[in-house]
Specification:
heterodimer, A: 294 residues, alpha/beta, Rossmann fold, B: 375 residues, 2 domains, seven-stranded mixed sheet
Chain lengths: 294, 375
């Protein structure tokens, strides 16, 4: 009994040190129990703190899907846009005010199906956005349809006989498009993920971080991985670090999730280039918040 | 003091945008609007502004919405095919109350149609193109001077009502060259920051006049902007009939209840006219000439020039309809705004359509022949 009373007095902050970043008036979230998004948010906030990013200068942008609901729960400026288009809104926001730290939350369908073109062009421009792509290999929000990253054979409501489509490797896609920072972890690697998110936030360019995540409700239930634990266990067993993966053949890597940091290089960043051009042509950087001035 | 220039319509539009305070352009090349992007790619860096060519028109307007929330007056320019691609995000701009300007230099359509020829086929798309219930503001210039003036007006209306404003020009106006007077003292409307404390501010409040002040991202208001139905705080609330109805009606009413402040028309010889010609955009030029010739020949004819097709100037049309035998709507499409004229005028007068498609302006003599048949 005494134990129970003690539980009641545990503050929100004691339960989760990152609760201070949340819009508490919006809790609880819409995420299903066991969803990987919670782990991703915690890793993100840990990465944010260790990168020493000013939370008040943070702008979150997202498209449509479960992962795109993240910005709505965090107490900073947030722009929840149209399906697939978050990258373009974020591009305008960052160019309009390069002083903002702009982070995009997206998912496999949002970023690589309907938004695939915007994703590769943002990577090509190397605009300073940090993109956190929560890849659960399925359309969760609409009830479990096959996605461009669903492995061949995946069962989904629109792939009742198993997916016969070839999936994207998002890491290869954004690397080829020119992203200057690329990383991937799973929800079984929350600490490694937060470190990579930190490195992505500190990179002055386009950073893409894929989080392979569980959707027990739709992916798991359809594909004999009914519990969150069984899915995370599967991630743990099948993950292989990039350094080791580099020594293995394509056949040996079949069914494996290669994790780690893939790209980290310095390359000219777009919003800085636009600012520099303004400086050359007008003698000053682009004017911030000019709508209030003239 | 005024400066006189002899310039192309698209350049006049771009110059007007700079005068209005536009400091961000995101676009995608398309005939016959491309010169607006080209001019602004040169001019914007010179006034500490930003220019970006995006990967398509969907992302072009996406970038413009993002830039607007960063606190910059922003615009894009396109033509019919690009305007079609923008419709989804136009709906987002309406729902999120994002001020911006979209210039649509209309060409022959449907589909890719006639890239280098004029048309007015996007009038109804400008009104109903995005899904759902909404009201919108669209302005149609009929001269190079008006393309300059109306672009400035467009930015001011966008800021005043926090809406996307469409400048519905056409290829004739975009590509023709005329003399333009550039005023020194151009009135621009600055964006207004909220007065309330950070924590008390409700960004989407159900205010009397419909329009709230607009903070920028990075101002500390921690606002949430979404295309979902939202409450006054901006949080999604998608299953409450009351909240949805309150929000959508406010968005619609901020245009409808200010109709008289937004609508702009000009008319001539309507007092004693038996027949009045109605038009907008470049065909107005043919209409004016037809009226001039008609009056010289003793025909009692006048015209109504619609500067703001949306919101539709129904009071102005209805007033004229009561005193004339016939109204003729002249359009470069197979009849779009004529339906609006019929809606408000059909009980009082006969409404006719003079339609010309194919890319050339209606000839004044052809319009006059139609008039003579009604006499």
């Amino acid at each position: 009994m005494a134990e129970k009373n003690k539980q009641d007095f545990i503050t929100d902050e004691e339960k989760n040190p990152y609760i201070k970043y949340f819009r508490k008036d919006r809790l609880p979230t819409i995420f299903c129990s066991g969803c990987g998004i919670g782990i991703t948010i915690n890793s993100f906030l840990k990465g944010l703190e260790s990168a020493d990013i000013d939370f008040n200068n943070l702008s979150l942008v997202s498209g449509i899907g479960c992962s795109s609901r993240v910005p709505g729960y965090l107490n900073c400026d947030s722009l929840h846009t149209t399906h697939g288009r978050a990258m373009s809104f974020a591009t305008g926001l960052k160019i309009g005010n390069p002083d903002l730290n702009v982070v995009v939350f997206t998912g496999d369908g949002d970023a690589s199906a309907i938004g695939g073109n915007h994703l590769i062009h943002a990577a090509r421009r190397n605009i300073n956005l940090t993109v956190i792509c929560i890849n659960n290999n399925i359309y969760g929000m609409t009830g479990g349809q096959v996605s461009p990253t669903s492995p061949e054979g995946t069962l989904a409501t629109t792939a009742p006989y198993g997916s016969i489509d070839t999936p994207f490797n998002l890491i290869d896609l954004v690397t080829a498009a020119g992203a200057s920072f690329v990383g991937r972890w799973t929800t079984a690697h929350p600490l490694q993920l937060s470190k990579t998110i930190k490195n992505g936030l500190l990179n002055n360019g386009f950073s893409f971080i894929e989080v392979v995540s569980q959707c027990p409700t739709y992916y798991g239930r359809k594909n004999k991985l009914k519990t969150p634990v069984s899915m995370i266990k599967m991630f743990k067993e099948n993950s292989i670090n990039k350094r080791r993966a580099d020594t293995l053949s394509e056949e040996e890597l079949l069914g494996k999730i290669v994790v780690g940091e893939f790209v980290n290089k310095k390359r000219g960043e777009l919003s800085k280039k636009i600012d520099d051009l303004s400086y050359i042509k007008s003698g000053r950087n682009t004017i911030r918040k000019s709508a209030y001035i003239f | 003091m005024t400066k006189e220039l002899f310039i192309q319509g698209n350049e006049a539009c771009a110059r007007g945008a700079i005068e209005a305070g536009c400091r961000f352009f995101g676009g995608y090349p398309i005939t016959p609007s491309t010169e607006i992007a080209e001019y602004l790619s040169i001019a914007l860096p010179k006034v500490s502004g930003s220019f970006i060519q995006m990967e398509d028109e969907i992302s072009a307007i996406g970038s413009v919405i993002g830039a607007s929330w960063s606190g910059i007056k922003s615009m894009t320019a396109t033509s019919g095919p690009g305007f079609s691609l923008m419709q989804e995000n136009i709906g987002f701009a309406i729902m999120s109350e994002t001020p911006l300007v979209i210039v649509n230099v209309q060409r022959g359509s449907p589909s890719t149609g006639q890239p280098t020829m004029a048309g007015q086929g996007d009038m109804m798309q400008a009104r109903w193109g995005s899904h759902g219930d909404y009201e919108t503001i669209a302005i149609s210039p009929s001269s190079v001077q008006e393309f300059f003036d109306f672009t400035i007006l467009g930015f001011n209306l966008a800021e005043k009502y926090r809406v996307p404003v469409v400048i519905l020009a056409d290829e004739v106006i975009g590509h023709m060259r005329e003399k333009v007077h550039l005023q020194d003292n151009i009135e621009t409307l600055k964006r207004i920051k909220p007065k309330e404390d950070l924590k008390d501010f409700l960004p989407f409040k159900n205010v009397e006049n419909g329009t709230n002040p607009m903070p920028s991202f990075g101002d500390g208001y921690n606002i949430h902007v979404t295309g979902l139905t939202h409450n006054e705080r901006g949080y999604p609330i998608t299953t409450s009939p009351k909240d949805h109805s309150t929000l959508v009606k406010r968005l619609v009413n901020k245009i409808l209840k200010n109709r008289e402040n937004i609508v702009s028309t000009n008319f001539k010889y309507c007092d004693d006219a038996d027949i009045v010609l109605i038009g907008y955009g470049s065909p107005i030029r043919s209409i004016m000439e037809a009226v001039k010739i008609g009056r010289e020949n003793g025909i009692k004819i006048g015209y109504l020039k619609i500067n703001t097709p949306w919101p539709f100037p129904e009071d102005e049309v209805a007033k004229i309809a009561k005193n004339v035998d016939d109204l003729i709507v002249v359009e470069m499409n197979l009849g779009q705004m004529v339906h609006e004229v019929e809606r408000v005028a059909k009980n009082d007068t006969n409404v006719h359509l003079f339609s010309e498609i194919g890319g050339t302006l209606p000839k004044p003599t052809d319009i006059l022949n139609k008039v003579k048949k009604l006499l």
